[in-house]
Amino acid sequence: LDWNGTIIPELKEIVGEENVVNHIIDLYVYSRDASIDTGWPAAVAFANTTDEVSKIVKLANKHGFSIIPRGAGSNVCGGVIPAKGDCLILVLARMNKVVNLDLENFIVTVEPGIVCLDLNTYLAPHGFYFPPDPASDKACTLGGMINNNSGGIRAVKYGVTENWVMGLEVVLSDGTIINIGNKAIKYVCGYDLVSLFVGSEGTLGIVTKAMLKIQPLPEIRLVASGYFNSAFEAGKCVREIIRRGFDPSGTEIMDYKTLKAVEEYSGKVKFPECGAVVLVELDGNKDDVEMRLDRLDLAFKEMGAIETAVARDAKTCEEVWAARKAAFPALTLRRPTARMEDVSVPLENLPVMFQKIDEVSAKNGIEIATFGHAGDGNLHPILLWDERDPDQHRRALQTLVDLWHAAIDLEGTVTGEHGIGVSKLMMMPVEHEAAVLELTKKIKHAFDPNNVLCPGHVIPIPGQRIDILEDVS
Ligand SMILES: Cc1cc2nc3c(=O)[nH]c(=O)nc-3n(C[C@H](O)[C@H](O)[C@H](O)COP(=O)(O)OP(=O)(O)OC[C@H]3O[C@@H](n4cnc5c(N)ncnc54)[C@H](O)[C@@H]3O)c2cc1C
Fold this sequence. Notes:
This protein is globular. The chain has helices at 3-15, 24-29, 50-63, 116-123, 142-148, 155-158, 193-197, 231-243, 256-266, 286-302, 314-325, 327-332, 350-364, 390-409, 428-431, 434-447; strands spanning 20-21, 43-46, 66-70, 87-91, 98-102, 107-110, 128-129, 165-171, 177-181, 206-213, 215-216, 220-228, 250-255, 276-284, 307-311, 337-340, 367-373, 378-385. The model has no long low-confidence stretch (mean pLDDT 96). The chain is built from 16 helices and 18 strands. The two termini are 35 Å apart. The strands form four sheets. A seven-stranded antiparallel beta sheet has the order 15-12-14-13-17-18-16, sandwiched between helices. It has a five-stranded antiparallel beta sheet with strand order 5-6-10-8-9. Helix 8 runs antiparallel to helix 13 (350-364) and helix 13 (350-364) runs antiparallel to helix 14. The site of flavin-adenine dinucleotide has 36 residues, from strand 3, helix 5 and strand 10.
């Protein structure tokens, strides 16, 4: 395609000279996300309005280039990595305004580029918040969260992004702009198209506005920690806490290796000597939370905790969550390559999943540190290696494949919240039967017959390499 002579000048006409880049350094930056996959776009454009997005999609159909919508690029599944050439990265991050705050109905309408934490900072003085809270909330955008159906620490009580999206404005693959959803809390007028777009990883349409439910801030949130001899015991404790009806708003685990990495990274946090910690947040009315917190402390001890701690003030609680949110950055500093996985299993199988992680790590000689949203059965094993060493690299990729199979064998999934992107395509036929894959293809074709949006994501394109072990000898 004639990018320099035709497409770039036409893109500049739509979004302005300063909002299109194709210098090699810019393209290098946009050839990556938070995964370890890479792929080069032909150009990058920054949109400011829905109309611009629609015009760019029409241009893509006219010239035959593809588009990957991008928020902050913090996904970890190669979700904004081009799978083939002639691709435009369309950045929505500058469309970051709050369009409307409807406090009477507990609804906020936003542009897709607003960052999750900025939305919550905006809502807090009004006494509200948006519950889905990925650990990347300082960076990730609502458009990215909607398209990855992101979860977070509070998903155990409040669910994931899909539970909070009431309506969407979407630019379809031919440039048509549609509005779907409704302000009414109960709404069953036809197919639930909003839910179809949520989690579609940019493959079905480009979200340009979102109408979101919001929640009154709880009076108080406090955290209790139980330290256990092993991750297996910590895993058993998580299920028991939920069974006993503590109704936690966060239930996280960090294993020994993660705790050590966080200690080194922060330079001031010191955890008791243990195999793993369970962090449990309770929220609600002050008296009720304090009473449940005391009971929780006792329950930890009954379940074999070697030590417990209760954070009874907001500052200490913030420190606890800051330590948890530092887990991935802290681990990335330990080795040249770090890959964050997100296997998810039924709660009963959570303790066994920890054992399986140890087994695949020992079998392949690849270090794995694990933390995660254990109350949802969703773990983040972090594989650490040096990809410049071919032997280590081969063993690390084998570890990944073994890990994915272990989760499926335990009636779980290879991805609880990160998605498929280009990183996990090879597991789609393992996790889904052929008829389901066929239906998925038909849905994509109905929404995007020319494969303009994110080709090679979720559904492979002809000739695409999907087996990650294929050319690793
Ligand atoms: C340190 C760290 C911690 C993380 N913690 C969590 C966590 O706790 N829970 C969790 O679920 N995830 C987590 N993630 C993953 C990631 O942050 C989330 O998936 C996040 O929601 C992605 O948002 P983004 O703005 O970065 O989207 P991007 O990475 O830019 O895009 C993600 C996907 O959405 C599509 N997309 C983006 N915007 C639009 C739009 N407007 N219209 C259509 N498609 C669009 C893209 O094409 C892509 O498929 C973490 C990542 C890191 C690096």
